[in-house]
Write a structure and sequence with these properties.
The protein is an alpha/beta fold and 290 residues long. It has 10 helices and 12 strands. Helices cover 39% and strands 20% of the residues. The longest helix is centred in the C-terminal third of the chain and has 19 residues.
Length: 290
């Protein structure tokens, strides 16, 4: 029986990137739907679960994406509410690639520091990828400074994360100016920049002051670099005592995780691959490779 991945995207045009990765992961058919909202997803889900018998539903799965993280999360919740009994299919949630990219970034960091005993600053933390990086770092016990140009947004993210991680060590920080960014990154062991494409968050003058920094990850692949001095292709390159990772360096692992997550969907019909599940899969894939 042919495998079918049903792509439910909250944007008007379903992501071409996600569709290509699904094909490269070995999916036989990809059905793509754009503009999907929480109140419109039930009919699409019913179309998926009523067309095959329970024993065959492992060959159908849902991929939920789009650029609006919160809407995608609500779509995923409503999709799962439409399941009942054995009539269900596996679900992968990865809007804007946030879960697979964050998993790759945090695993890169973990190769050089003990996550449970480090201070980490996440710049652009209130964006889709930044939110997931902050979540994963805090879940591993790191002290996480949530950097955002808006302190109010950083505080809201802290409260949201604490619902899942009540013991998380989370500190909201405003990073609208160089002085604020310098303060947020001072004494940090780890820096992850997850800002918008083409925006430099850390200038050369800032970077040279952080002597304690062990690992720096820049997830921006569009010039200028989000963190001055990091090349997009860097993968653990040591520069002035700091292990550096660029967007392309991390991206190779992200792609490996993404494809593996898609393939995992078709092992059974009852999986939900969200932030934590994708991270566990990523650790088994990457850390086992050494």
């Amino acid at each position: 029986m042919r495998t079918i991945l049903i792509q439910l995207d909250t944007d008007a045009h379903p992501s071409v990137f996600d569709r290509v990765v699904a094909v490269d992961a070995g999916v036989d058919e990809v059905f793509s739907y754009g503009g999907v909202q929480p109140d419109t997803v039930e009919g699409l889900v019913h179309g998926a679960i009523f067309t095959r018998g329970p024993d065959d539903l492992r060959n159908t799965a849902l991929f939920i994406g789009g650029s609006d993280l919160e809407t995608a999360e609500r779509v995923a919740d409503r999709a799962q509410q439409a399941f009942f009994g054995p009539l269900r299919v596996s679900v992968l949630l990865d809007p804007s690639g946030c879960n697979t990219t964050a998993a790759a970034a945090v695993i890169a960091v973990s190769r050089h520091v003990d996550l449970g005993d480090c201070r980490a600053t996440v710049l652009g933390a209130t964006g889709p990828v930044g939110r997931r990086v902050a979540h994963l770092l805090a879940s591993e016990g790191a002290e996480v400074r949530i950097g955002s140009r808006s302190l109010a947004k950083a505080e809201r993210l802290r409260e949201s994360l604490r619902k899942r991680l009540p013991d998380g060590r989370l500190l909201p920080c405003q990073t609208a100016t160089e002085a604020e960014t310098e303060a947020a990154c001072r004494d940090a062991d780890v820096l992850v920049a997850a800002g918008a494409a083409g925006v430099q968050l850390v200038s050369p003058s800032l970077r040279q002051h952080w002597s304690r920094l062990r690992v720096a990850v820049d997830l921006n692949a569009v010039p200028p670099a989000g963190v001055a001095g990091i090349d997009p292709a860097d993968r653990g390159v040591e520069r002035d005592g700091t292990f550096c990772y660029g967007a392309i360096g991390v991206g190779g692992w992200k792609m490996k995780i993404h494809k593996a997550a898609v393939r995992r969907l078709f092992e059974s019909n009852d999986q939900v691959l969200d932030t934590d599940a994708i991270y566990r899969l990523a650790r088994s894939l990457i850390l086992s490779d050494g």
